[in-house]
Every structure is written in structure tokens, then in C-alpha cells.
Amino acid sequence: MMDSRSVRQILEATDDHIAGIMQLSKDILYKKIPAVMRDKLVNQALKIGRQTARDIAIEYGTQDPILIAKKLGIKIEEVSSKSFIGNILLRAEYVTSPPTIRLYKNSIFWLIGTITRLKLEDIFPPEKIMAIHVAHEIFHHIENVKIGLVSKCYTVNILKIGPIHIKSEIKSLSEIAANAFADTLLNLKVPCGMLDYIIIEEIKNAVKKFS
Ligand SMILES: [Zn+2]
Description:
Layout: H1 4-12, H2 16-25, H3 35-60, H4 65-71, E1 75-79, E2 84-85, E3 88-89, E4 92-95, E5 100-104, H5 105-117, H6 126-147, E6 155-161, E7 164-169, H7 171-185, H8 194-210
Parallel strand pairs: 1-5
Antiparallel strand pairs: 2-3, 4-5, 6-7
Helix pairs in contact: 2-3, 2-7, 3-7, 4-6, 6-7
The protein binds zinc ion.
């Protein structure tokens, strides 16, 4: 079983910059980003996420993601089916038309169960988990309709055919900003990007137990 004390220690020692670097390092294009640029890009994405949260809270007079989603005209849909990104279970997603946040409630309940079992409720209160996911996806909506994709703040060359350079955006920058948005809106003590860390550790442990 996963040692919840060491998980707690790691969570408590992590700030949003560390969580952002962890997120960036998982990006498939990470190695294409010059080392000197990495900190700067993470800081920039964090800044955009935090500022957007402050702006939206003032504009709508609330920090409740469910209310904000309603005011922005985003539909919230809870689904029971499972969806994967690679081999990771998807917990939530944003669909552009019509603007919809889809919550995969079974994956979210499994995450809440893991948090409870590890006694990490003081860090990630179970009643906030749905709201964290809604907040994260609201940010993707705002990127889409208002501020533009944070992932496009930086591009790298992925292919060169003669004089033509094919460039790609850095998708994880949008994720870092969306997490910072949720952290700020919900005043989280530990960055919500660390929910992915809890899941990865939990899966690693399950694999170890059965192999
Ligand atoms: Zn996202």
C-alpha cells in the first residue's frame, strides 16, 4: 500500500511552480524546450492562470466555479462512461460547441476514494474535488472564447522539410495555467496539479501489489 505519510510530505513541500515544472516535464515536447526557457514558461502560465481567476471572481462576484460556469453559459454534464487519454482515465473535459464541461463522475469518485483512504482530506477536501475539475475546465473555455490558448505562447520546431518548419504548441502550458486558475479560485493549499501525482503513485502501487 502507498505510504500516505511520504505522499503527504511531498504534497506539502510542493508549490505551484514545482507542480508546473512536473507538468511541463511530462509534455511530449519537453526536451525540445531549451532548459533556460522552462522556468520562464511555467511562471508565465501560472501568472496568466492566477490573474484570470482574480479577474473572473471580480467580474462575476463569486469564486464558486459552478455559478461561474452557469454565468458563462457553460453546460455541466455528468457522465458515467469511461474515457481515456493514453492509459490515464479522463476525469473531466471541455467541449467547445455548445460549451460543455463533461465530468466523468466514476473517475472523480475513485479519486475522492483514494484521497479519503490516504487521509489527505485536509489537503484536498472531497467536497471541493468536483469544483476543482469544473474550475480547471472553465479556464479552457476562457482560453477558447477570450484570452487565446496559453499553449500557443511558445512553439517549438517539430519537423523541417526543406525551408519549411513545422511548429507545435506546448499543450502542458494550458494545463499549468488551468491548474493555477483552479488553485487561485478555490484557495487551495496544495496545487491541484498534484492530484495527478496522487493518481500516478496509486497506480504504481497497485501494479506493484499485483505483480
Ligand atoms: Zn486541462
